[in-house]
Amino acid sequence: MEDLLKMAADLSSLFGGMIDKVTMEALRERAAARGVDINTLLDELANLADRKEKPKEIEKVPELPPRPIKAAPAPARDAPFHEHVEHAATVISNTAANLTSADDKLRQEAGSLTDQLMRLARAAKEGNRQEIIHSGQAASKSIRELVKELRRVASTITDKRMKDRLLWLASMLLDLSTNMKILCSVKAACGSPDNDDQIVSVINSIRNALTESVDTINIATRAKKRQV
């Protein structure tokens, strides 16, 4: 655990708490200037976390028809961190429920992201620093899987403007997934709420990008601009 948090602290020192304000290209340039390979560092962090303690496998239950979670009103700006994360998760769940059966895979991946965000909220509420790292990594992985599916769906869209927009949103989500993984590691290392606003900002950006992606897909479907 100590090695895991030390490596996360190195990330905090390297990027000075400004992760969500820069692009991944800028992050890599910043790391290179200090002689650090960001991808290697993130991989080492993930491997170390896996060696220390793997999260318990949750028994899968039979899949039921999608049932949107009712989202409460957006929390106040000064609400606890976990409330902001929970709200974003419920919005993502409701958004994914609007997808048609032709996009079941995308709906499943969004459901996985919802689960991991709820897991992050619980870990933050309980002050479980190692679980914050694990859930941040798992959420990042879920986003990357979402990106793969969004790109696949984009390949079926015949309208160039819609296709380009969806690909752009997928690219944004990919960068945000890495930012989230880093910021959760920094939060766990610091053991304080100092960068909570940054994580909430990233999660809200993920929520907004995914919402627009689903809207774009549904519009393309209704307008018969897809080769399904």
Provide a descriptive summary of the structure in words.
The structure is a single chain. It is built from eight helices and no strands. The model is unreliable at about 15-25, about 50-55 and about 60-70 (pLDDT under 50). It has about 230 residues and is mainly α. Helix 1 packs antiparallel against helix 3, helix 4 packs antiparallel against helix 5 (about 105-125) and helix 7 runs antiparallel to helix 8 (about 195-220). The protein has a domain at about 80-220: Up-down Bundle (Four Helix Bundle (Hemerythrin (Met), subunit A)). The radius of gyration is 18 Å and the shape is globular. The longest helix is centred in the last third of the chain and has 31 residues, at about 160-190. It has helices at about 1-15, 25-35, 40-50, 80-95, 105-125, 130-155, 160-190, 195-220.
- CATH architecture call of the domain at 81-222: Up-down Bundle
Which structural category fits the helices and strands?
mainly alpha
On the 0 to 100 scale, the average pLDDT is: 80
CATH superfamily of the domain at 81-222: Alpha-catenin/vinculin-like
Q: Notable features of this structure?
A:
228 residues; mainly alpha; Four Helix Bundle (Hemerythrin (Met), subunit A); 8 helices; globular
Brief sketch in words of this structure:
With 228 residues, this protein is mostly helical.
Topology, please?
Elements: H1 2-15, H2 24-33, H3 38-52, H4 81-96, H5 104-126, H6 129-154, H7 160-190, H8 196-222
Helix pairs in contact: 1-3, 1-7, 4-5, 4-8, 5-6, 6-7, 7-8
